Amino acid sequence: MIELHLDEEVLAQNVAVARAKGIVLPTLAEQADPALVPAIIREGLPNVGLWEIDPLNLFRITWHNQPLEHGGLFARVNSFEIPSALTGVKARIIGLVGKWFPTGCHKVGASYGCLVPRLITGQFSARYHRAVWPSTGNYCRGGAFNSRLLSCKSVAILPEGMSRERFDWLRTVADETIATPGTESNVKEIFDAVREIRLADPDAFVFNQFEEFGNYLWHYAVTGPAMLEVVEQSGGRLAGLCLTSGSAGTLAAGDRLKEVYPGMQIVAGEALQCSTMLNNGYGEHRIEGIGDKHIPWIHNVRNTDMVMAIDDRDVLALFRLFNDPQGLAFLEAESGLDAADLASLSLLGLSGIANLLMAIKFATLHDLTGDDIVLTVFTDSAAMYISRLEEMQAIDGDYTFAKAAEDFKRLNQLSPEAILLLNDRERRRIHNLKYYTWVEQQGKTVAELEALWSEEGTFRTAQGLQGEVDALIRSFNAKVLAC
């Protein structure tokens, strides 16, 4: 749970660091609704690039940024409705776009949600702690970015098999980068690296996205309202939210959605090659950014309605279709997509394409109509995976119209299998899988595991903390600005 007890001595040190660096922290309410952002912050943002290491960019940790690489203020929620000519279904599939966050991914928000409660209470010291960010890719990038903005030392941990682009960028921002064995499926190896750091360095402070309720709260308080705004502006009926689980933080937005649309369904996805929720599985897959072989501590399984697995071969094939010039030429000729829609396909990285495929399967399964909306998230963009295109080119050769036609069929020939509608027994089974990672390996107790399952348990408690966290942020800022 998010602990909010104060260490006044360390808190005073953090205030001094923030004052020296000119750092003011946005509240969760301001990140959810930038209309609340102070005028003095707005005046400075047009002069700052989206990825610049500038404290003003803390206020760009929002779904509302103008889609610009430099300057700009705030606008409507960044989203992209996938044309039916591409999906082959009548339902309106809309994805929130992560590209227009600092670092090009919404995980920077999750890392902020984990770091800031510890900073404003003095549990974490910006002067002597090292912030350790265990991750399958984007979360550690967000953590390193926020750490640098807040003048904290950072350690980024991610699997060695992740895309080259992530490592190239981390070398310029993180103080230390640790590459663990394997790929995004190898979460235990990440946890093993964390254990070694804890044993060797008493000044290491670990922000584990898979268990930190700051991750859950940020998505509940910021992503959830953004999704509600998209539904309201779209004027349709919300049928479901489809998301690959990753750390399960983004699924917290579904908890917020269900408060307004109790009939909608939350669908949690995973890779077919390593299906844990479906098959208690093992293996390895290539949908970068989603970890496997465990159930995240912060996954509210009790509120999940369906589990779905996506074949990573479909994801990679469609990634090339959406980004190779020959693939785009085929799509223009075959589906009639206009130039704007074709260009927007680059907003989908690998996990974004997996989320799209989930939404298509969900719409097909329920025979949804044009009045129905299925929400998802396009976590990051193709920019994080250009090296994967180069690898496919080297292995498979030039992309052709014939290959594009074959890959295009994957959108409409998705297997109806690898889907499980969850009843209470299946939910409890998946929830109980947390035991093997979190109780046996990570030191949680059975009592804590049971509290997670309780109807009025840990998740409800986390949801109610936004007001208190924001009050502490405002108090912190007042001390920083006091002369």
Overall geometry? globular
Specify the structural class. alpha/beta
Q: Which bin fits the share of residues in helices?
A: 40-55%
Low-confidence stretches: none
Distance between the termini: 34 Å
In what range is the share of β-strand residues? 5-15%
Mean pLDDT: 94
Gyration radius from CA atoms, angstroms: 21 Å
**Strand order in space, largest sheet:** 1-2-10-7-8-9-11
- The overall strand count is 11
Q: Report on the biggest sheet.
A: 7 strands, mixed
* Total number of helices: 22
Write a short abstract of this structure.
By secondary structure, the protein is of the alpha/beta class. The chain contains 22 helices and eleven strands.
